[in-house]
From TrEMBL:
Catalytic activity: a (2R,3S,4S)-leucoanthocyanidin + NADP(+) = a (2R,3R)-dihydroflavonol + NADPH + H(+); (2S)-flavan-4-ol + NADP(+) = (2S)-flavanone + NADPH + H(+)
GO terms for biological process, alphabetical: flavonoid biosynthetic process
Name of the protein described by the UniProt record: Dihydroflavonol 4-reductase
Domain NAD-dependent epimerase/dehydratase intervals: 89-326
Organism this protein belongs to: Mikania micrantha (bitter vine)
One of the record's GO molecular function terms: dihydroflavanol 4-reductase activity
Similarity comment text for this entry: Belongs to the NAD(P)-dependent epimerase/dehydratase family. Dihydroflavonol-4-reductase subfamily.
Segments traversing the membrane: none
């Protein structure tokens, strides 16, 4: 039993390795994807017929989802659009993938945004923000680094709210302490210290992660429902050298302690793998997961993840700030899917694409599990379906020329 659990828990280490090398190779005769899927599905049915059926729905729902474009919950009326008028908020790490969407939606809603970036002179980090509607009038850039004490004081000063998204999300850390753990943990405390100094700040919304929720010694199988009461186990992260997972786990843990001690109102948003269109000109780690599949990778990883659209994640941040009763943590997963399902969805959407045909290992597929959608509903989030998210990601990757180099998937 313990071994089985570890297979599941080690999955994040796997994706990190996969993301760092898109061309995972495995020679030898392997069962086909369909053969192994049948084995996995037999197991899933044995555990929980409805959950297993859900996995099959991924395929049958594709055509339907795409033929009926998702109607976003957030089609604002004129007054709702301006709910931020007269308010000033700070977004840390504003040039990042998720943060750029938060800044865009905040500006659309009339907020004045104080955006922190590490290098305001780097056009790759700022041009896409400066071009947003409302940026000319209401976007102000601030230079700040997570590792410098007091660095965020000026950006946070006078703000009604703070969205703390800045934290490194990458894989190939040669020095995990300096490159991942310190910026995540010390950086979060640094930002929160600035918030507690600024008496204007009414709430802090922190971008945490499902990485801080589900990596513990509990099994994750189709009958298991992960929710906001779950916490990742730092010892397990350490044992498995899951440094990014550890960075998010320690940062969230420290943030809850700090805000409780200082009486700061904090809400965390805990998304899984975030996909959807990119606003920034650079390739971020989670969009790279899709880019790798369509860019000539021979195999897909034997991993199962939750997936969610970046626009839903950005909107949830703003709702978590605006809705007075919002509190605690919010898990964000539209669908839990194995990489083989993602490949299958890609194939349905882009039949001419050359996609990986086989899994990177010959073990049984890591099973799916469930993630509760109950709490996030109270933020008004009606998730964009995964099919649409994948399509938006690919279209955006094409537009930004992240698809093509060496593969025939143009
Ligand atoms: N994408 C996902 O799938 C996902 C899922 C769950 C949670 N999250 C969380 O969401 C947040 C944003 O992630 P993302 O996917 O949008 O990644 P991203 O595009 O790589 O953005 C990360 C941001 O963190 C900033 N940053 C990193 N180190 C910093 C430092 N020392 N000082 C100041 N800023 C620093 C970066 O600033 P520069 O622009 O200056 O490099 C960048 O703006 C992170 O907290 C991440 O853990 C992401």
């Amino acid at each position: 039993m313990k071994t089985a659990r570890m297979v599941v828990d080690l999955s994040f280490v796997g994706v990190l390795l996969y993301l760092s090398s898109s061309k995972t190779k495995k020679n030898g005769v392997l069962p086909t994807r369909d053969e192994r899927k049948r084995v996995t599905q037999r197991k899933m049915y044995a555990w929980d017929p409805p959950a297993a059926a859900k996995s099959d729905e991924i395929r049958s729902e594709t055509a339907l989802a795409l033929s009926q474009p998702h109607q976003p919950f957030f089609s604002f009326t004129a007054t709702e659009t301006m709910s931020g008028a007269g308010k000033t908020v700070c977004v840390t790490g504003a040039s990042g993938y998720i943060a750029s969407w938060i800044v865009k939606f905040l500006l659309e809603r009339g907020y004045t945004v104080k955006a922190s970036v590490r290098d305001p002179k780097d056009p790759k980090k700022t041009d896409h923000l400066l071009k947003l509607d409302g940026a000319k009038e209401r976007l102000h850039l601030f230079k700040a680094n997570l590792l410098e004490d007091g660095s965020f004081d000026a950006a946070v000063d006078g703000c009604d709210g703070v969205f703390h998204t800045a934290s490194p999300f990458f894989i190939n850390a040669t020095n995990p302490q300096a490159e991942l753990l310190d910026p995540a943990l010390k950086g979060t405390l640094n930002v929160l210290a600035s918030c507690s100094k600024a008496s204007s700040v009414k709430r802090v919304v922190v971008t945490s992660s499902m990485a801080a929720v589900s990596y513990n010694r509990r099994s994750r199988t189709p009958d298991v429902l992960v929710d906001e009461t779950w916490y990742s186990d730092p010892d397990l992260c350490q044992e498995t050298k899951s440094w990014y997972v550890l960075s998010k786990t320690l940062a969230e843990e420290a943030a809850w302690k700090f805000t409780k001690d200082k009486g700061l109102d904090m809400v965390t948003i805990n998304p899984a793998m975030v996909i959807g269109p990119l606003l920034q000109p650079t390739l971020n780690t989670s969009a790279e997961a899709i880019a790798n599949l369509v860019n000539g990778s021979q195999t897909y990883p034997n991993l199962t993840f939750g997936w969610v659209n970046v626009k839903d994640v950005a909107n949830a941040h703003i709702q978590a700030f605006e809705i007075p009763s919002a509190n605690g943590r919010y898990c964000m997963v539209e669908r839990v899917a194995h990489y083989s399902d993602i490949v299958e969805l890609l194939h349905k959407l882009y039949p001419s694409f050359h996609l990986p045909q086989k899994c990177a290992d010959d073990k049984p597929f890591v099973p799916i599990y469930q993630v509760s959608k109950e709490k996030v509903k109270s933020l008004g989030i009606d998730y964009i379906p995964i099919e649409q998210s994948i399509k938006e990601t690919v279209e955006s990757l094409k537009e930004k020329n992240f698809i093509g180099g060496g593969s025939s998937n143009m």
